[in-house]
Design goal:
With 188 residues, the chain is mainly alpha-helical. The chain has one domain. It is 72% helix and 0% strand. It contains 10 helices and no strands. Helix 3 crosses helix 5 and helix 9 packs across helix 10. It is globular. It starts with a helix and ends with a helix.
């Protein structure tokens, strides 16, 4: 997995260890940087999945969450993201938008934000960001405690689940592209 993240960091153009270092960031930086990383990864994933590297600039220019023409909707329609991943991406975008448009939010604390939510809002927050976590029995309680103690760690784990899934899809796309190239070579 570590090697996969390092490959993706290289593709995206960030320093090796960038993704892992996010867990040590303050909340504001964590959300902004995680969003930027995942958005770049999604743009690359879209172009690779469609075997159209030439479309990368167009995917980069698309808004992330626009409901009719954003990266998320394209990725869902081509099977790159499932509903749980879409929910995570949209929720991360909402949280990022809350923070990025007002510089006074640089002191934002994800833990404090989570603590100030009502019980119903906490349940919703948990559902939005608990991708990749087991959600049954005692493990569900453990996950909720993780959200209580460190929502940033919980969200980072969700990011890891998405990175892992998209990395596997990159590898699948590469295999399919190589297979197609080999087939075309043999047909000629």
């Amino acid at each position: 997995m570590k090697l996969g993240i390092n490959e993706l960091e290289n593709e995206i153009g960030v320093p090796k260890g960038f993704f892992d270092s996010l867990s040590h960031e303050d909340s504001w930086s964590f959300i902004i940087k995680l969003h930027a990383f995942l958005e770049s990864l999604l743009s690359i994933s879209l172009s690779l999945s469609l075997h159209q590297n030439s479309l990368l600039d167009e995917f980069i220019a698309l808004p992330m969450s626009a409901s009719k023409y954003g990266k998320i909707i394209f990725a869902k329609k081509i099977g790159l993201l499932d509903s749980e991943m879409v929910r995570f991406f949209r929720s991360l975008s909402e949280l990022r938008n809350l923070l990025v448009h007002n510089v006074s939010n640089v002191t934002f604390s994800l833990k404090k934000y989570y603590e100030d939510l009502t019980t119903k809002q906490k349940d919703s927050f948990y559902k939005k960001f608990s991708i990749g976590l087991i959600r049954s029995g005692d493990d569900n309680l453990t996950n909720k405690i993780l959200f209580e103690e460190s929502p940033q760690t919980a969200i980072h784990l969700g990011g890891i689940a998405i990175v892992y899934d998209l990395h596997l899809k990159h590898k699948e796309a590469e295999i399919i592209k190589k297979g197609s190239s080999l087939l075309l070579t043999h047909v000629r």
